Amino acid sequence: MNRRAAAPLLDDLLATLRAEQQALVHGDADALPALASAKANAFDHLTAALRGAAPAERLALADALSTAQRVNDTNAALIAARMAVNRARLDALLSLSGHAPTAAVYGTRGALSAPAASLRSAAAA
Predict the structure, then answer these.
(1) Which site from 14, 46, 92, 107 is most exposed, i.e. has the minimal number of CB atoms within 10 Å?
(2) What distances in angstroms separate CA 99 from CA 84, 104, 118, one per listed residue?
């Protein structure tokens, strides 16, 4: 594989990541499932191509892959921000209904975590 052979694969990946970013910025949730599938396909094709590449050829792709990583990281931050807003809204609804959050919640990095002990004890009281 040479840089020219990888260029279309990288272009596809970057175009998909940028389309995902636009969907996240504009709140187009309907576009996200197809973009997630396209992103997975782009990663799969690029991974297969890189497995057959010489180390020097892989190194030549580092800048373009770094760009893809930055766009993907921005997308992850956009998702995390939306999740934080949704979590706050759910907490407010639970509070209005007279219940403290007792179920696991998503943390700032998107992982499930148990609520703080003080919230659990308040719910039990």
Answers:
(1) 92
(2) 19, 14, 13
In this structure, of 43-47, 54-58, 107-111, 116-120, the range with the lowest mean pLDDT score is: 116-120
Distance CA 92, CA 99 (A): 10
User: Which helix H or strand E contains 106, and what residues bound it?
Assistant: strand 105-106
Q: What is the pTM of this model?
A: 0.69
Structural Rg of the chain based on CA atoms: 20
Residue 4 has pLDDT above 70, yes or no: no
CA distances from 44 to 38, 40, 41 (A): 10, 6, 5
Contact 5, 49 (CB under 8 A): yes
